[in-house]
Amino acid sequence: MGSKKRGSESVEVEEGQLEAPANEVVSSGKSKKKMKREKGKEEDSVRDEDAGPSVAPNSIKPMERRKKRKALDKERRHSTLESEKSKPKKMDVESKHNKIEASGVASTIGSSSSGILPEFHIGVFKDLASSDASVREAAAEALVMELQDVQKAYDRLENKDSVEGGLKLEAEKEDGLNECAPSLRYAIRRLIRGVSSSRECARQGFALGLTLLVGTIPSIKVDSLLKLIVDLLEITSSMKGQEARDCLLGRLFAYGALARSGRLAMEWNCNEDTPYIKEFTSLMISLAAKKRYLQEPAVSIILDLIEKLPAKALLNNVLEAPGLAEWFAGATEVGNPDALLLALRLREKTSVDSSVFNKLLPNPFCPNKLFAADHLSSLASSLKESTFCQPRVHSVWPILVNILLPDVLLQADDVASVSSSLKKHKKNRKSSSSEEENAKNLQCFIEVIVEGSLLLSSHDRKHVAFDVLLLLLPRLPASFVPIVLSYKLVQCLMDILSTKNSWLYKVAQHFLKELSDWAKHDDVKKVTVVVALQKHSNGKFDSITQTKIVKDLMADFKTESGCMLFIQNLQDMFVDESHAVEEPSDQSQTTDDNSEIGSNEDKEFVGTMGNSDVLKTWIVESLPSLLKYLKLDLEAKFRIQKEILKFLAIQGVFTASLGTEVTSFELQEKFRWPKAATSSALCRMCIEQLQQLLASAQKGEGSRALPNGLEPNDLGSYFMRFLSTLRNIPSISLFRPLEDEEENVFKKLQALETSLSREERNSGLSSDVNRLHALRYLLIQLLLQMLLRPREFLEAASELIICCRKAYPCPDLLESSGEDDNDDTAPAVMDVMVDTLLSLLPQSSAPMRTAIEQVFKYFCNDITDDGLLQMLRVIKRSLKPARHQVAESDNDDEDDDDDEDFLDIEEDEVIDKAETGQTGESEDQTDDSEAVGGFKKVDEEVPEASDDSDEGMDDDAMFRMDTYLAQIFKERKNQAGSETAQYQLVLFKLRKPQVLLVYSNLARALVCPHTAESSEQLGQRIWGILQKKIFKAKDYPKGEDVQLPTLESLLQKNLKLASRPIKKKKLAGKKQSASWNRQKMIASLAQNSTFWILKIIDARNFPESELQRVLDIFRGVLGEYFDSKKFQMKPEFLKEIFRRRPWVGRHLFGFLLENCSSTKFEFRRVEALDLVTEILKSVGPADGSGRDALKEILKSHLSKLCHLIEVLVTNKAEKQSRRAEVRKFCGKIFQTVSTVKLAKAFLKSLDQNVHVLCESQLGDQFLNLKKLP
């Protein structure tokens, strides 16, 4: 405050007072004598200057007063220097005494020469500028309490002239504060000057003091205070920018203190005709018009005053204030959001229409007129200017939102809308008139302000648009979501989020997050948000914006009502093509310069399919995905499946020949189609999704009977009845006409499925139920496949019909097609079925392959020898070498040789066992569907068999399978690589004692390079079998037949394979990628095999003496790890071994410490620190049950651990990251040894020089360890 000179005569005194001690007390009489004795001429000059304004306050201009003050200062300094030269021998004691007296004057002010008034300590002014709010508040309270006492004593005096005749302390006689004590007058003037200071928090503190002082002491006159504010904070033309800004802000804080003190309201309560409110309002309007940054806080001060005044005072004083009407009149032209805010608040408080509001508010006022398009257009310029206060949201927006959506609609309304929307053949519930008006107002607001003004303007105004929409969300009913999430807004979001370096990227992300949080707990809101986003983005919102908001909201549907509502909305969007009308998007206005909607692939896709089909494609794909995360009871889930099935069947399988609506009286439903004919590609997609839905239902269905027993919970049966019903309606036909032969087969499949369904229901709980069920679903999939691919499946369908008729003869089946059923030379039914199913596999879809696998699963025990050999011949491939082979290095050839020998097992013993049938009894059986797995896609999972449906094979069947397996082994050397195909075929028949044998052969086939040359798909298939049926199987070899030497050999070979580096061969295009993926798959095989073998070893509970060979294998691996740079085994793999098998880490702990200390490679040493930490962690928690075991292992290896610490601190790592790892490791070790009470022993084992190094490199970590008791 003292750093800048004001147009007042007291700046110098003020600076001295701020620096004076607060606890020194000197009487005012002594101060008076000193000033008379030492100042002399100065005092007379000051009196003359003080007297000037009292006689003619406006006769001397501020510039003249400043010049006069400078001249007096110069003269005073000159006289002081002369006096010091003339009296050089003046005693220091007197000088010190004078200084103390001078500081006492500044420190404490007495109000009279005799000390009849209490003293006022001015040290509180220093605390008013403190950055601590509590200090400022305490100082303000102390200031007010002291001045209250001074003023009370002053009021009790009879002769006030004696006090006023003394030291005036800058208080002029004609400043209007004649009834105030001199100390109070001084404090007021100083507080007013203090609010203009930019030092720390002076403005806040001095304004607080002024607020309390004016509100507490009534002797302070309002008119005098207003005059003082203008005079003391006067702005002249000679002031620089910063100085003028400080004065303006000082006025603002001073006026704010007056408004918040409540004095103006008290004045009006005493006198309703008081002129002060008008004057104050006019001053504030004038101040707001001076600078743009003063506008909002000035209006905020007026609003504070408005809250304290009644409506009558507002009408007669505030609204009639000079300059207010003119300020309102020019608001719409210049764009003044604060004027609009003030007008809205005044109208809200008074509830009276006034002409003062001019164009800002409609007259008469009502929300409908306020949010009319014409009126909003006039307010648009004002609202666009509200961006200056970012990142805050201007106060005018919450008021507009409150008027726009006055009340939050009850949740019951949304629930009612849900229930009404789910009713069929009824009109939607009519909204009340107030809801319609609110919707109309919101529509105008969004179109004119948000879309027409903010979104088409700058980035800042787009930011404001998103902030305003976030204000709307808490009050927004679900039915209004389509209005807010309009086409232009969604397009703007996509434009911003499609480019990550967009300036508004984080703003749009925050908006979507808030939108998702608002909608995710309400099904109605979720539906409206998803529909709006996808409708305006043609179903590609997530892909364009690279977000998952639509996917996450769809995954949040947990209730049946929510799913039904979503399905109905998607159906309506599919049929209603109003969304297909394209609206132009002006990217130059809604996007960044470099942003572009979507990728080129997306645009090409849209161009080939059309916007309408792109959205419909998303609808078709989204409906079945609802069931993915849905967890409901079987009955509720079945109802949802039926709704999805009906939609897919109507839009994919059928079409209406007359009109777009058809009513089925039998089903009591109305079915709708789009006005434009659905494309054949979309129909095919619906059928494919229908196939997938039926396949998923077949996999996931539990009991196929509902609790009430009235209707079977069978989606396939429901579909066939639905199909038959719709085919009987004349105005409905299939999406493509069938030929006569296709029509005949189609009807036979329908009739056969009906008969098998009846037979299934009559079978009860017999073993044929699963067979009949699998056959029925195969027939349904075949029927749909016929619609997709004309004439391709006629022969297979005819043969399958014959097989079903022979396997399950029924009197109501169709007549024979002319073949002689009793012909003895005819092949067996199972052979024909196997041949038919094998012929279907290569050309079938994934759902149909699933149905075929289920048939194989339940009919596998009836497969004959001819059928089995036929299966083997189909999947056997001729693996000839490639015509052009890539030349590789000798090392690669050696690696290939190693691959061929990997996991090699003596085959003579295997063949002997197969031929003699020396196999144990089957305990469990894996999925039979693996037999036909060779035709599956690489990325498709192998379906798991239900535990309750697996049936074991008898001894004869098992013996036959072992014989075939032996034949396969014998042919291995003649046909390199061909055995891999047979292994994946016979795996599902192998029993547990043979698991190791099967594993070794499959692993060897996978690693063999001939497998990669022949078929990548075959390798993927083998890898899938190993993972699913061996590594992740619940059961694994546990019997005594499992020999430890065999496990040791497998373990050693797998560890060797895991340590082999992945080589980047120079191949062309896809071959290089395939080679890279295969090497990573082999590395994963070695790691998973190691975990699996260790699990088997653990299960046998071998004594420690027998496990020495296993530990030696690991020691050899660790030794090579520390000795060779080329050793590629990942430390994470070793850590996982120690985590899963803690006994391995405990036995290798000492060996690991030794090698970690002695290795010559720094990076190996630092890497191995994690292994040491992992072993200690696997032993057990230091503060739990494993504390004793941890203490024992540390105690036994304490010297090795200390040596490792010594090596780490002696050989300081070069890289900073490695040094950080060392510090982290040492900190963990120190914490562990302190926890297990080994700190003293640990420190004793360390040499003294190691102590010094630890203190210098590890700092507090080591010092804290040494401080432990």
Compact description:
With 1269 residues, the chain is mainly α.
Notes on the protein architecture:
Its main location: nucleus. Residues 39-50, 72-98 have a biased composition (Basic and acidic residues). It is built from 63 helices and 6 strands. Among the domains are: 124-346; 1151-1268, no CATH class. Strand 4 (661-664) and strand 5 form a beta hairpin. A two-stranded antiparallel ribbon has the order 1-2. The protein has 1269 residues and is mainly α.
Can you tag this structure with a few keywords?
1269 residues, disordered N terminus, flat, two-stranded antiparallel sheet, 63 helices, 64% helix, single chain, mainly alpha
Q: If you average the pLDDT, what whole number results?
A: 75
State the helicity in percent bands.
Answer: 55-70%
Low-confidence stretches: 1-59, 85-107, 110-114, 165-171, 409-431, 579-609, 702-711, 814-822, 877-901, 904-993
Number of helices: 63
**Total strand segments:** 6
Largest β sheet strand count, sense and barrel closure: 2 strands, antiparallel
CA-atom Rg in angstroms? 46 Å
Shape: flat
Strand order of the largest sheet: 1-2
Structural class: mainly alpha
